[in-house]
Amino acid sequence: MESFVYRQRIDLPAAASGGYQALARLDTLIRRDGLVDDRLRELVKLRTSQLNGCALHLERHSREALRLGESPQRLHQLAGWRESSLFSASQRAALALAEAVTRLGPEGVSDDVYAAAERHFGPQQLGNLILTVAVTNALNRIAVTARLQAPVPRAEEPPD
Questions:
Q1: pTM flag (> 0.70)
Q2: Of the candidates 106, 53, 56, which has an alpha carbon nearest to the alpha carbon of residue 79?
């Protein structure tokens, strides 16, 4: 059986630096607006990255969520948030919206999902959540297509 080697296809941030940097700046602008709680924003980005199978951003957003004080238990249960009691009603609405925007079907985002998000977030917060999911989806798709890799942590030195 032949072994599969997962190699980066293109250094897209370098090859298309203007467009890639524009997406990164948009992400920074959304974050700086401060309209969406930092931990919620990272949960939304992490759930979006889970759905897209993007290892680079799974690593990045789980580390950032932990840095912001998110609990490992909630991160472990994020993929099963619907069955978990660890997420509030507003977090559930944001996660449902992230899933609907990421998995757009023929009907788009359902009125029920949108209305639930609208009940919990004002227009600016909701707009920033939608933009957060859209930018995360774009960055995930770039990373998956280009096979951008998460940095491999150095193995700890064995004790003497």
A1: yes
A2: 53
